[in-house]
């Protein structure tokens, strides 16, 4: 039995005095319900009254804090015949105890600590706002009104604005947290068809930049890893830390680097393996004492259309690109598209790696498969699918890759 939820309306919170007959009229008019005959209508009215009583009783308990969600009317269509059901829906009302529980889980999952109670209260408030946004967005996703879904991640105690500022290296990151424990990486993802360097073994593990805004460095190491695997048949995870320490001048911060400078550094100095120069997530002094694993010869830049990006990725390997990362704040899966995602050059500050493209036939959409550097817990095991052919988030506007 396939159930299609058509309309979600009328939460009954605080609905008291109005008679059931009045509500019945309102219900019929709101949902354009007609019955074949009077007997059927009487029968349905009886059911409606029963449900109404159930809703009111439940919501009274909700008011007293004994329930975590409230009930309302819903119209549900079962195949051809319209039936009227009233369902419990864990949606807007699912606050109080549930959000406190999720907050605890969030803090424990991501090892988050706050300096004082005032800060914790403030962050909890933001977390609740984000939770509401996620729930509302995902309800729309369930109804087929969105093509991607959201979820709680390590950024859920920040506002989107703060998140954007952090990405651009503008402070904020005074959120005292220890690195998250990570689950094992799911090695093979299904449903990524068409063309993907990941399937060809040319993409290594997802990095986690932490509070160090070094998306550019992970984008660069990803491109170099891919190209070295394609060229030599094997490769290693390369050192993003070396780029942070050595391609950014002393006194600079993680956010002061960029992909092109990283490639230039590699052309001049080579790059060692991550195992020999591990990631610390803070800008340190350059200490490149170990042997380089790769060097590069030239940089191909100026890729500024999605067609060129596709050609470059197809014929060379994974390609580095800049996107507007801010709207990806709570992304968890599906094909990302949002009006809030800018393609204005000034917003294209977050470095990522374009590793493939595919087609999602459930929503009839093509997407780029993009490797990010916010850990494997973020998005789809560290990846995001970005809608293709609309320059979503500016993905095709500012891409580049090196030649080895
Ligand atoms: C530099 O790296 C080497 C290992 O490659 C290490 O033994 C040494 O202590 C490091 N020096 C500094 C100053 O961190
Ligand atoms: C891009 O953003 C900048 C700064 O916000 C603005 O001045 C510029 O007009 C924008 N460009 C376009 C093409 O919208």
Automatic annotation (TrEMBL):
Pfam family, one: Peptidase_C1
Residue ranges of every copy of the Cathepsin propeptide inhibitor domain listed in the record: 24-74, 103-163
Gene3D superfamilies linked to this entry: 1.10.287.2250, Cysteine proteinases (3.90.70.10), Cysteine proteinases. Chain C (2.40.50.170)
Signal peptide start-end: 1-17
GO BP annotations listed: proteolysis
Molecular functions (GO terms): cysteine-type peptidase activity
Annotated keywords: Disulfide bond, Signal
SMART domains: Inhibitor_I29, Pept_C1
Domain Peptidase C1A papain C-terminal: 191-403
Family stated for the protein in its record: Belongs to the peptidase C1 family.
Designated name of the protein: Uncharacterized protein
Species whose genome carries this gene: Phyllotreta striolata (Striped flea beetle)
């Amino acid at each position: 039995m396939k159930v299609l939820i058509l309309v979600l309306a009328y939460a009954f919170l605080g609905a008291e005095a109005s008679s059931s007959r009045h509500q019945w009229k309102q219900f019929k008019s709101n949902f354009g319900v007609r019955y074949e005959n009077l007997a059927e209508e009487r029968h349905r009215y009886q059911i409606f009254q029963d449900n109404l009583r159930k809703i009111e009783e439940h919501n009274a308990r909700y008011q007293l804090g004994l329930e975590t969600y409230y009930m309302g009317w819903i119209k549900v269509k079962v195949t051809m015949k319209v039936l009227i059901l009233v369902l419990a829906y864990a949606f807007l009302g699912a606050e109080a105890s549930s959000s406190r529980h999720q907050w605890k889980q969030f803090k424990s999952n991501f090892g988050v600590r706050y300096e004082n109670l005032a800060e914790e209260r403030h962050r909890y408030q933001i977390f609740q706002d984000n939770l509401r946004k996620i729930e509302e967005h995902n309800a729309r996703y369930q109804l087929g009104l969105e093509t991607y879904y959201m979820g709680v991640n390590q950024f859920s105690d920040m506002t989107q604005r703060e998140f954007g500022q952090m990405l651009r290296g503008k402070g904020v990151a005074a959120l005292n947290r220890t690195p998250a424990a990570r689950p094992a990486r799911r090695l093979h993802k299904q449903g990524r068809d068409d063309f993907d360097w990941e399937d060809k073994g040319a993409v290594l593990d997802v990095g986690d930049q932490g509070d160090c805004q070094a998306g550019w460095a992970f984008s660069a190491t990803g491109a170099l890893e891919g190209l070295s695997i394609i060229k030599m048949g094997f490769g290693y995870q390369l050192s993003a830390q070396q780029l942070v320490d050595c391609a950014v001048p002393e006194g600079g911060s993680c956010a002061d680097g960029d992909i092109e400078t990283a490639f230039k550094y590699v052309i001049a100095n080579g790059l060692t393996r991550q195992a020999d120069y591990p990631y610390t997530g803070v800008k340190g002094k350059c200490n490149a004492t170990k042997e380089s694993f790769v060097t590069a010869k030239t940089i191909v830049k100026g890729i500024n259309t999605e067609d060129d990006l596709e050609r470059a990725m197809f014929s060379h390997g994974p390609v580095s690109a800049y996107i507007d990362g801010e709207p990806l704040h709570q992304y968890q899966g599906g094909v990302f598209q949002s009006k809030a995602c800018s393609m204005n050059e000034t917003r294209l500050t977050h470095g990522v790696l374009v590793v493939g493209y595919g087609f999602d036939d459930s929503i009839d959409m093509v997407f780029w498969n993009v490797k990010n550097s916010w850990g494997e817990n973020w998005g789809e095991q560290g990846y995001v699918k970005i809608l293709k052919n609309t320059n979503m988030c500016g993905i095709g506007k500012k891409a580049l890759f090196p030649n080895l």
